[in-house]
Design a protein that fits this description.
This protein is mainly alpha-helical. Helices cover 76% and strands 0% of the residues. The radius of gyration is 16 Å and the shape is elongated. Pfam families: Peptidase_A24.
Length: 152
Amino acid sequence: MTVDMIPLAMGAVLVVAMVLEIKTGRIPNWLTLLPFLLFAALLVVSGDRTTLYWQMGLAVGVFVFGLVMFALGGSGAGAVKLMTGTALFVPLAKAGYAAIIFFLVFFISSFVFVQIRKAFGSENSSWHLMANAVLPLSFSIGVAGLTGMFWL
């Protein structure tokens, strides 16, 4: 695995997390562990680790924010771990923009998910999003992470 492939693998983790949470309502622990393992691999193969140390500092800040959200009941533990792992890969210079995108996507997708559930939802649906009044935070995390890693 080359250094260039590691962010692509992280992108795949985000897409899988989004789909799994929308389908099942959970982000599995094994999936939230993958960003940290990928970052550890990046630390091993990277020549200059200075920017990676800044990424770890950013991730600590995101983790503290996530813990506050978890304590207030605003997110689940899986979302906190996924958000922290994603922060390891969003460049520090793009983190503020990624945060803005996170909040924009969260508010817009909340409205869209509620409207989709009203129109097509059913308690008998096998998709967690369609059967329950939930907002999958992994969608906002994934869109913001992918945007921060690849498009900003």
